[in-house]
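quick one, 409 residues, struct below
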Amino acid sequence: MTEQVRVEGSHRRVSLRIGSIAESATLAVDAKAKALKAAGRPVIGFGAGEPDFPTPDYVLDAALAAVRDPKWHRYTPAGGLPELKEAIAAKTLRDSGYAVRAGQVLVTNGGKQALYNTFAALLDPGDEALLPAPYWTTYPESIRLAGGVPVEIGTDETSGYRVSLEQLDAAVTPRTKLLVFVSPSNPTGAVYSPAEVEAIGRWAVDRGIWVVTDEIYEHLVYGDAEFASMPTLVPEIADRCVVVNGVAKTYAMTGWRVGWMIGPDDVVRAATNLQSHATSNVANVSQVAALAAVSGDLTAVAEMRSAFDRRRRTITAILDAIDGVTCPLPEGAFYVYPSVKGVLGRTIRGHVPATSAELAALILDEVEVAVVPGEAFGTPGYLRLSYALGDADLAEGATRIATLLGEGR
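---
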């Protein structure tokens, strides 16, 4: 029997490591919505977190010039264009007050590769990564791919979806290697105050725990909320901190695929070595476009932020008015994360959804609105909706949901 198991295992078509990865729920929902729309259905998609604005003209101009310049038709350093790395270092100091050198920067194929590189460089098999939930769907999968063990720490709307020091303390074990910290947050839009960011940073320093902080939504904060970068507030953590960022959200450049990681020299060197074997350099035209973006001003993001601020208020008001739904007003990013626990178990058009996944499927089938269920983010009983879409579609889609759920009894 043992020999039979060994033979079957040696002929496995897909490795256990890759076969165990869950597909990106947000991309799956977005793909289904786009397929239905292409088939002529009036589907409104709240799935993917993607600004509906065009990439700024000055960025396009730089990219077009790069296309025509033969020097960008060849391989460039795997770790990124030297001038882009210098510009990212300057941009980081300008926007968050964190002084870094170009040698601490690795340019990656989007924020996802920055995260993958970071976890691969830091985690050994069995190392634990503290992961406050709700979390973006990619975090636990990247941690597992690196051999790490994600340790989920639950939060909910009563705490503003923010983790406490007491919860972090309770989750620490001798195998804890790092904490994943995200503010502003995807999927909840939660923003930690500077005092909270500093307290968590000092907590990590005291325990010798690494922090991987994702700052991709740094410029998308609203009202009195304030973005704060942990290594700026807690300089002592710099030697055990990796900052992940990119141009996707700030400059409406999701498809250009340029992100970066900033960290200690040894970690960045190791991650660069990994990338040299995985993908080599990021596409040069995209890097030149990113150079223009991070070197320019923030006028474009200010315009987007104004629109997102308006939209977050509109969608929150519509959803929070639904009986059984609690929708906190998000302070950052471009997502709402309403609790739908009060709707589950009701009869809606002959169906009785018992989970948020079933409710999301019902919403798509009955009113042709695509949302992502909370199961994808580690917290069943919620839905995530991106409000990075036009005002008319946003109001129409949210109203369709309100009308449907209002029929529940």
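The chain has a mean pLDDT of 94.
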